[in-house]
Amino acid sequence: MAALLKKSEIIKYIFIINILSVLIIISNYNYLLFHLLVEGLTVLVSYIMIIVLINTRKFNNNSTYTFIGIAYAFISSLDLMHAITYKGMNIIPNITTNTPTQLWIIARMVQSITFLLIFKNVDKTFKNAKAAIIFFLVFIYSMLVIKDGRLFPSCYMDGSGLTPFKIYSEYSICLILTISAFYLIKNRSKNILINDEYKYLLFAVILTIVSELCFTIYIGVYEASNIMGHIFKLLSFYFIYESIIKKTLQEPYEIIFNNLNTTLNQLQKSNYKLHYKNLELMEIKKWLERSLRIYRDFFEILPFPVIVIENGKIFYANNKSKELLKLKDKKELIGKTFIELVADEYKEMAKERISELAREKVVPPTEETLICKDGSRVDVEVTSTSIFIEDKEYYMTILRDITDAKKLKVVEDKLEEKLQYEKVRNEFFTNLSHELKTPINVIYSALQLQDIYFDKEDFNNVRKNNKIVKQNCMRLLKLINNLIDITKIDDGFFKPVFKYNNIVEVIENIVMSVAPYVESRKMNIIFDTEIEEQYIEFDSDLMERIMLNLISNSMKYGKIDGTILVYIDVEGDYVCIKIKDDGIGIKKDKQESVFERFIRGDRSLARSSEGSGIGLSLVKSFVEIQNGSVYLSSEENKGTEIIIKLPKADISEEIAATLESDIEASNIIKKVDLEFSDIYDL
């Protein structure tokens, strides 16, 4: 037994070391996540402690540990508010860096005073109800400090760092903790604490002192002393947790299990003697009834719901089952089938589980939803097994409430989605810096060469340099225009100018205007249409930008001697504009995200063509602003087709004849120069 305990201790400490290692690694990459995890773990440990104390109060009359549990519940609540208000969380508006630091000092002061009171009066009985009221008032005061930081002395000033009050407070806390450790050592002789409890409590106090000292010497939050301060704080909470578990769970359960083992041994001896001592039958029967009460008492103190089923009906349920299903009396379950408790959509699953249990005698855990007495729903993990008592089969079902776990999973999924968005956004800004830096470097280099060419009167190279400067200026202008348009669209200030116009004529003019540019890239562009005239309501300027962007993409990713086809036809109530090329295409796993903000197919800086990754996102926004939709069809190494659908307009031929096109070839050429500015060697 001792060897097994030693082995379990080794596994436990290896697990703790792994957790601490992961936290330290995370701190090197994302301090805010590290801080949230550490504070979250300390809060979780504290809440588990108070839950354990509440659920073991029937056989644990130690008011000292109850006082510790109450104190840590409120201390961890303050730490939770400290984490929520920490700089960068952005959960509570108008919170300064000073507020979480004030909450930290309040929590540590309460913690140190708690230790002092406990260890100085270790043999006294604490009035925990009054203590809870005091802690609650401190918590309310802390909430007021969040609202108005002037209710507590400033602990952190932006630009100057920690205030003297904060530093001296840390030293005062360390002094109180040192005095607490002295009293703990002094009062050990009173035999109130066993060796393990004393050891864990002393470790907790020492680690808290070390943690506070670490927080008095750091300058920046990313320094090793700050990181280690949080690690030591987490360890101190863990040792408090270990002490309470030793006192409230392991000791009572060891007594129970020892009694059960003794009972089982006696039962075996009695069974052997039963064949020879029939006169002792009644005495053994009474003893078995006493054993049954022990088993039932054992089920009652278990921290999870247990239901026992006989012949398909519930004949026993512990108090945790009553609490889970929000019943006034657990007897309300007796005589019911388990299927009656299950939500309709899970009844078939529950029936299959019960059928499998009858065959296999044990089934793996399943997730089901139960209906409570008040009509609310609770998600549970159901574990069932078959047991035989006196040759009679029973089914024991253990339930675990996973409602909060499922909610946590949703939060984790949203967090992962946010992290992915941040990753894409960071890649975009890296790409954006490249997009800004490259043309600026080119312009700067060209201007440096300009003086040399002027001195040599080499005007041909001067003209070439001017062309390079102009192209890169337009490239910068295009990028800036796109960013401005994104901002306008996001803020709702982008207002299109709708006019009725012949969409076929507009698209044809655009294609004809870009034809020389396409041919200079040794590519072909073809315009084809099923209709000669179709008037719709759209913004001609946006349509030009849409088409020029899509054609420039086809040129960038097309191939030598390749073809770009622009085709117009009508499908029902929509005009379809299709731009198709025979270039490199887009990978399947990238196709769903090409219209998303900041996404490029090639994210490397050493890519084959330039671009910021916002062009197709703008195209999608421009199309949707005009009540249209855009789709993509692509096959790798075979080409890409973009399809734009715009609603047809109900306009008479007489009105259409009076409309004049506001598209000028010279304006298109200027826009072509701008939109094609990131295509070189034209």
Defining key terms:
extended; kinase activity; alpha+beta; Beta-Lactamase; 60% helix; 682 residues; disordered N terminus; transmembrane helix; 14 strands; Helix Hairpins; 5-stranded antiparallel β-sheet; 5-stranded mixed β-sheet; kinase; Rhopdopsin 7-helix transmembrane proteins; 4 domains; single chain; EC 2.7.13.3
Give the topology.
Elements (H helix, E strand, L loop, with lengths): L1 H28 L1 H25 L7 H22 L13 H23 L7 H20 L8 E2 L3 E2 L1 H23 L8 H23 L6 H51 L6 H21 L4 E5 L2 E5 L1 H6 L22 H14 L1 E10 L5 E13 L2 E10 L1 H54 L2 H33 L7 E4 H18 L3 E6 L5 E4 L1 H17 L6 E9 L2 E8 L6 H4 L23 H11 L3 E7 L3 E9 L5 H6 L6 H11 L7
Parallel strand pairs: 9-11
Antiparallel strand pairs: 1-2, 3-4, 3-7, 5-6, 6-7, 8-10, 11-12, 12-14, 13-14
Helix pairs in contact: 1-2, 2-3, 2-8, 3-4, 3-5, 4-5, 4-6, 6-7, 7-8, 8-9, 12-13, 14-15, 14-19, 15-17, 15-19
Task: Describe the protein.
- It is an enzyme of class 2 (transferase).
- One of its GO terms (molecular function) is kinase activity.
- This is histidine kinase.
- It catalyses: ATP + protein L-histidine = ADP + protein N-phospho-L-histidine.
- Its EC number is 2.7.13.3.
- The structure is a single chain.
- The chain is α+β, with helices and mostly antiparallel strands.
- The chain has 4 domains: 18-247, Rhopdopsin 7-helix transmembrane proteins; 304-401, 2-Layer Sandwich (Beta-Lactamase), CATH 3.30.450; 407-491, Helix Hairpins (Orthogonal Bundle), CATH 1.10.287; 499-675, Histidine kinase-like ATPase, C-terminal domain (Heat Shock Protein 90, 2-Layer Sandwich), CATH 3.30.565.10.
- The protein has helices spanning 2-29, 31-55, 63-84, 98-120, 128-147, 164-186, 195-217, 224-274, 281-301, 319-324, 347-360, 403-456, 459-491, 503-520, 540-556, 588-591, 615-625, 653-658, 665-675, and strands spanning 156-157, 161-162, 306-310, 313-317, 362-371, 377-389, 392-401, 499-502, 524-529, 535-538, 563-571, 574-581, 629-635, 639-647.
- The strands form 4 sheets. The protein has a 5-stranded antiparallel sheet, sandwiched between helices.
- A hairpin with a 5-residue loop joins strand 5 and strand 6 (377-389).
- Helix 4 (98-120) packs antiparallel against helix 5, helix 14 (503-520) runs parallel beside helix 15 (540-556) and helix 15 crosses helix 19 (665-675).
- The radius of gyration is 37 Å and the shape is extended.
